[in-house]
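The records we work with from here on pair a chain with its fold. These numbers are not coordinates but entries in a learned vocabulary of local backbone shapes. To see the layout at work, look at the sequence and tokens printed below:
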Amino acid sequence: MIDNNMVEALGLVLECGGFEKAAKALFISQSAVSQRIKQLEECIGQVLIVRTSPPRPTPAGKQLLKYYKQVKRLEEELSSRLVSTADEKYSVLTLGVNADSLSTWFSGIVHDFFKNHHVLFHLIVDDQEETHKLLTNGDAVGCISASNVPVQGCSCQYLGSMQYKFAASPDFCKKWFPNGVSYESAIKALAVMYNTKDTLHHKLFNNIFQKLPEKFNTHYIPSPEQLLNGVISGLGYGVLPNIQARIYFERRQLVDIFPGVYIDVNLYWHCWNIDLRFLRIFSKLLIESSRQALNP
């Protein structure tokens, strides 16, 4: 049977970045921390930590770390249920979310939930193709992801889709696309993308022209709001979520440079299959609210 004190020592060594810091957090000696982890490795029959600086978990160590984080969440949940209302502690929901969702529709749901529940949100922002890894590593209890494959030990629910379109300012179009947008003019024009993980520009471009250049002349702006401002101000043309850009199309501050052409990104809610009360309630609200915010 696994001793939770040993698992806690493992978790703190990895979270704190070293044996000395873990010892301080546990109020025990560094040698006692080392002994607990050694005993845990002997119990499991596998090496759990690569003794580098900072220490890194082995694949088996990652699995135990995920277990440790789940147990911590359950302990926090139990504590919040047992204390009186006057002494009620905040529960923590650590969630992964893509930047476009956070800047458009997701934050409103967070605000609505917080009004009625004693919860602190820890939001980790990453690309929608990457957020599910936060569940795999045990770094989050739920995430918005473009993947429809459930992570082991987690559930997966379809939320809806976000529609993305190519957009540019009227002045940018006059300068770079005076005769309309062709493959040649599009690869010469300056582009604006979120970061190097952002593949939407490439996917939509390939859907339109059935080929890709070796590279684009690209500005990288890792902020949805500032990326939008960059496109409006004429830094380049870019792929924007229609939920964010449509008001600027209506005001003619932006031009839909390929009318009727778009790419849909399906979004899914993944969360741990453990009985965390606030996670369960938030999941229900998120699924219901996303039907109004996203395309079916």
